């Protein structure tokens, strides 16, 4: 089943966004902010962010504007508790792109290394103090919006199944974050019948359940790059995380 999922979803990387490049980048950056843990800073910036969302095509900005209206009208403590219950407690709403397809298996360790290699190939070093894995959706979206749209597009479309599963889980919960993910989906290729078949198989099977952890050999933060690999290319590293706070306080 894994081979089928990979074959079906990775063909999307050959597609191109159907919206203007700047609109897609603005949408990705806004979604990265709005899917992160809500803070006082988000509340203070809600009106400013809403004005950016309002300037986007309705299919991209409408859901973002709707969520920002909720931010302004809802107590921050309520938002924070809802966020933790939705994304930190509910496995089906995980914001880590490799979890749905790899679960807690050795294969996920390899997938995480591939994310970090993609970032490094574009000159990006994750800040280990952020305490988030490299497949965390807000990090991937910030990278795609601000650093390398082509590499970011590949990561998003390669893991489109995870985004689709997240959307369906949020829809089932009638979550306040559903419109945010719908805005993200609007930037990605439209699904067809084959996609739906692959998705149905994954939903039926669920994430792989082999619980082996990630040992040092597979840890994306200590993996040693091989000669000639993308990880060996290190042009002027920069740090992600200065634009958005990453992850909920633990």
TrEMBL record:
UniProt GO molecular function: metallochaperone activity; oxidoreductase activity; unfolded protein binding
Domain of life: Bacteria
Region Disordered, annotated ranges: 228-250
EC identifiers of the protein: 1.7.99.4
Keyword terms: Nitrate assimilation, Oxidoreductase
Pfam families membership: Nitrate_red_del
GO biological processes: chaperone-mediated protein complex assembly; nitrate assimilation
Protein known as: Putative nitrate reductase delta subunit (NarJ)
Source lineage: Bacteria, Bacillati, Actinomycetota, Actinomycetes, Micrococcales
